[in-house]
Design goal:
heterodimer, A: 565 residues, mainly beta, 4-stranded antiparallel beta sheet, 6 helices, B: 389 residues, mainly alpha
Chain lengths: 565, 389
């Protein structure tokens, strides 16, 4: 597959402020009503879950055409502790709980971006020690449902329409009482129903948490390796509101680690969705779909289990995307400080090569501990760029010295794809610089202006909404790909055919990053190209359809079975 | 009073550091020692005082002051107080620019912190000060490799081979350069030479597997992947390695021992845990960890001694009783094992691991009624039991 990007890159424009700084994002969370402070319940005893969460999701729960927000909340960890009596006391009027915010962009008639907290009336009662959120329509009614992961029992919320959700965890059989982190909805058996994979991190309890120390000899957070890895879980959607635990028969119980990040994609281009799991301190797994309901872990042989030196790294967040335009999905995994964030380039048929340093990502990643991450085309030049949300997991001596009360803060990072197989870090981007302890990151066009915005969730800090200021200076193509039932077709592959020689490949997904859910719509940057030849869709069922004359600079819904033959 | 003095010292120390008869010295960022292990805090404070005294004494030479800065930098470095260590080394090197040690160690910290251009510049200076220190060209090679400056990396690793013709770290680096260039056969040659020097460096097998994958030799790929592990190749670096000898207290040795244990490097783990026990003979965790490691190494007697001492120090320590019981059970001393397991279960009646082993030992000892009762209480799977005749 060839790409248009060499042509497009010539037209790339980077705007500058009066001070010479790149202005890519403007942080507007509080200004637009996203008032949310994450609470981790820390008491000074260095419990690992305190610094692990939490995530957030961008999804359109009311199907009004704009992205709403769900934000996961922590809680207290120790029994008999009140949220108001912790190191960073909870000051909210109600107990800490996950919150749902409705985007009023298309409902208030003024096209003004403003969010309203609708948690109370939504029926979502997320008062556990929250970690992550996954989004998918589990009953094919065209309404996005939510799966919330916790330290403790998870929750499946069925979207009933009219802004109401019902807890169907028990009926659906999707609970997992362990410490769950990221989860992913995808249709692994092509039966038309979204299945669910849930990662579990560590066999932690307040009672079994030992004292751990940093190299400085000061008490610090433990690595997950002091706790047993509990194993992950795969649920098969039977289509009747019930999921079946197929972890063992599907083969994914055979190998596991301390699971934190998950991404699903068809890595070997055989038409069946595979699973990549990033583990913290253990080898990553690449579960290759065997097309019969089972999976085999090929990560080591494929060259995607460890880094190029054979070192197991601390995998946190993960994403997949065709950054080099060769028609295959590459993998990017975020890691600890002193480790690189690792780029596994897909050479074809799921044969990977660690090309981190060749891509210019080695050194910049070593400085920070990365969590949420995704490929996205922030400047709409046709090449997938990278966002990385950072925050340390061990006390940073320099911040301790400065008496910082929560000395884990690090800046986030944006990398621009050069179009030549590499990336350059976009520096001096003021909105990325605050030293916060970022964890989750979700992508989506929140203001529907044709460029990708970023939601960042901070541990023990406020949520951030970074509005893109540059992307829509180029042409773009927005698509929502839905099935016959109106469900977002996660896993569908999209090929945007620009002309006889050039095309771009993207896919529909809500998973990836870390503990978070992404916009299922596909937003493709076109640079200066104002007309495309066709859009070719490979649906998860394997059927292929092609649309001609899809308009640019707007969103179009492509429904399965409706392309003119 | 003691606390007041410590606090006062922390406040005034930076000011003293700044008073220097060399204007270009940097003000050393004084680390927060509040939460450090007491013996470590005392160790650092002593050297801080020594530096302060040297700096105040106008009769002291620049060499003496350099040495005082360098020594304090080494202590900071040993405990990963990196910004403070960097400042100290920098001052030491400014005061004694021809002293290889301080320039090298500043470069090392620059490399560690990702300030690669500074590191390159300082390593190059260090090389002029001491041309036989093989870690300099190897470190330079690794930086160039990280920066994807492959030709400079290759030149640096070759320079290392001129100092030490079989240096495994240099061969490994050359292998990585070749692998980056997809010169697979050349990469294999260098990785083979690395393994010939350090057969225990099983991580090299992964690189070999990737090189054979490039050549399409699937069988060799599989062979090497089955041998790959977590032990890498390190260049001999006496200056950095020597920092370990400065470490006092229990915690660092305990942490290092655990890391080595997790990597199944039991000999190394035992060395660290022994150091931890030496630093803190009453530290129960150190003794239990040493015991577990010794039992992995097959030293049952040594392990038992450590567990017994741990129990003497803390009679209610469940995992000391449990680990000792495992040893005793392995020696068919069922009654003794039962006694320890019962002690453990008295502390934590719901510990399933302890309960399972106790039930099994009761069965082996023929104490069937107690075994059945325990199995019922803890929902354990019943097992056949034959009372003694």
């Amino acid at each position: 597959m060839r790409t248009i990007a060499t042509v497009l890159a010539i037209f790339f424009i980077v705007p500058f402020s009066a001070t010479g700084q790149h202005i890519v994002f403007k942080e507007v969370a509080e200004q637009v009503g996203l008032k949310f402070q994450h609470y981790n319940g820390m008491t000074g005893k260095f419990y690992l879950p305190e610094i692990t969460g939490s995530g957030g999701a961008l999804f359109d729960f009311d199907n009004d055409g704009d992205l709403d927000v769900f934000l996961v909340q922590g809680n207290v960890l120790e029994p008999n502790t009140q949220p108001g009596n912790t190191l960073f006391p909870w000051r909210g009027p109600q107990s800490p709980r996950g919150r749902l915010f409705r985007n009023e962009l298309l409902s208030n008639g003024s096209a003004k971006l403003i969010f309203t907290d609708v948690t109370q009336q939504s029926g979502i009662v997320a008062t556990g020690y929250g970690m992550g959120v996954a989004v998918g329509d589990i009953n094919n009614d065209g309404l996005a449902d939510l799966y919330l992961t916790n330290l403790g029992s998870n929750q499946m919320y069925l979207n009933k329409g009219a802004g109401k959700f019902t807890d169907v965890t028990k009926e659906s059989g999707t609970d997992d009482p362990r410490w769950s982190t990221s989860a992913s909805f995808f249709d692994y058996d092509r039966d038309g129903w979204l299945d669910l994979m849930v990662l579990n991190y560590a066999d932690f309890s307040v009672a079994n948490s030992p004292n751990c120390y940093a190299a400085t000899t000061a008490k610090d957070y433990c690595t997950p390796r002091v706790f047993r890895a509990p194993g992950n879980r795969l649920f098969h959607n039977k289509g009747n509101g019930v999921f079946e635990d197929v972890t063992v028969p599907a083969g994914v119980s055979k190998e596991f680690g301390h699971g934190l990040g998950i991404i699903t994609a068809d890595f070997n281009n055989d038409g069946w969705i595979d699973i990549y799991v990033a583990n913290d301190g253990d080898q990553s797994q690449l579960w290759t779909n065997q097309k019969n309901g089972t999976f085999v872990n090929d990560a080591l042989l494929a060259g995607a289990a460890v880094n190029r030196n054979g070192q197991t790294e601390a995998g946190m967040g993960v994403d997949a995307g065709d950054f080099d335009g060769n028609g295959t999905d590459d993998i990017f995994v975020t890691h600890l400080t002193d480790e690189t964030n690792t780029l596994f380039v897909n050479l074809g048929e799921a044969v990977f090569e660690d090309r981190t340093r060749e891509a210019g990502l080695g050194m910049p990643g070593r400085r920070f501990t990365g969590f949420g991450t995704f490929f996205f085309d922030y400047d709409n030049d046709g090449w997938l760029d990278l966002f990385v949300a950072n925050g340390a997991v061990q006390l940073l001596p320099e911040l301790v010295r400065q008496k910082n009360p929560f000395p884990l803060g690090q800046p986030n990072q944006l990398f621009r794809n050069t179009g030549k197989g590499g990336f350059v870090e976009i520096m001096d981007q003021a909105e990325l610089q605050p030293l916060e302890v970022s964890r989750g990151a979700a992508l989506g066009d929140v203001d529907n202006d044709g460029d990708t915005d970023v939601l960042v969730t901070n541990n023990n800090g406020p949520v951030r909404l970074l509005l893109n200021q540059v992307g829509n200076q180029n042409h773009w193509l927005g698509m929502r790909l839905v099935g016959r039932s109106g469900r977002d077709m996660l896993g569908a592959q999209v090929e945007i055919v620009v002309d006889e020689k050039n095309s771009l490949r993207r896919r529909v997904r809500t998973d990836g990053s870390y503990l978070s859910g992404n916009d299922p719509r596909v937003l493709v940057g076109l640079g200066q190209v104002s007309k495309i030849k066709a859009v070719r869709v490979v649906w998860p069922s394997g059927t292929v359809e092609e649309w001609k004359d899809v308009g640019v600079d707007r969103y179009t819904t492509l429904k399965e079975g409706t392309a003119r033959r | 009073m003691k606390n007041f003095l410590v606090m006062l010292f922390l406040v005034i120390t930076p000011a003293i550091y700044s008073q220097s008869f060399r204007r270009d010295l940097v003000a050393v960022r004084s680390p927060d020692l509040t939460n450090l292990e007491e013996s470590v805090r005392n160790q650092i404070t002593e050297l801080q005082n020594s530096l302060a005294a040297t700096a105040k004494n106008p009769a002291q030479s620049e060499t003496a002051l350099s040495e005082a800065y360098g020594k304090l930098g080494q202590i900071y470095h040993a405990y990963s107080l990196i910004p403070s260590a960097h400042d100290c080394y920098l001052n030491a090197s400014l005061l004694a620019p021809k002293d290889f040690r301080w320039t090298y160690l500043v470069a090392k910290l620059d490399q560690q912190e990702g300030r690669f251009e500074d590191a390159i510049r300082r390593y190059r200076i260090a090389r002029t000060l001491r041309s036989d220190y093989v870690a300099v060209p190897v470190n330079l090679g690794n930086i160039f490799l990280e920066l994807n400056r492959l030709e400079e990396a290759r030149a640096s690793f070759k320079e290392a081979l001129e100092i030490d013709k079989n240096n495994p770290a240099a061969h490994y680096g050359l292998g990585q350069v070749a692998l980056s260039k997809r010169s697979y056969a050349e990469a294999i040659q260098h990785f083979d030479k690395t393994l010939a020097q350090v057969p225990s460096a099983n991580r090299v097998h992964y690189s070999l597997a990737m090189a054979y994958r490039g050549l399409g030799d699937v069988e060799k790929v599989k062979t090497h992947l089955t041998q790959q592990g977590s032990v890498g190749v390190r260049v001999s670096d006496p200056l950095v390695d020597g920092l370990q000898d400065l470490i006092e207290g229990v915690r660092v040795h305990l942490a290092r021992g655990k890391l080595a244990f997790e990597a199944r490097q039991f000999d190394e783990a035992a060395i660290e845990f022994r150091k931890a026990v030496a630093a803190g003979p009453n530290n129960v965790a150190a003794r239990i960890n040493l015991g577990v490691t010794l039992s992995q190494l097959g030293d049952a007697q040594g392990a038992a001694e450590q567990f017994e001492e741990a129990i003497r120090l803390e009679p209610g320590r469940v995992n000391a009783h449990y680990n000792l019981a495992i040893l005793l059970a392995g020696q068919n001393s069922h009654e003794k094992a039962i006694a320890h397991l019962q002690s453990a279960l008295a502390v934590d009646p719901n510990d399933m691991n302890v309960g399972s082993l106790l039930a099994s030992e009761l069965v082996k000892a023929g104490r069937c009624r107690e075994a059945i009762e325990l199995q019922r209480r803890m929902n354990l799977k019943p097992s056949p039991c034959r009372p003694p005749e």
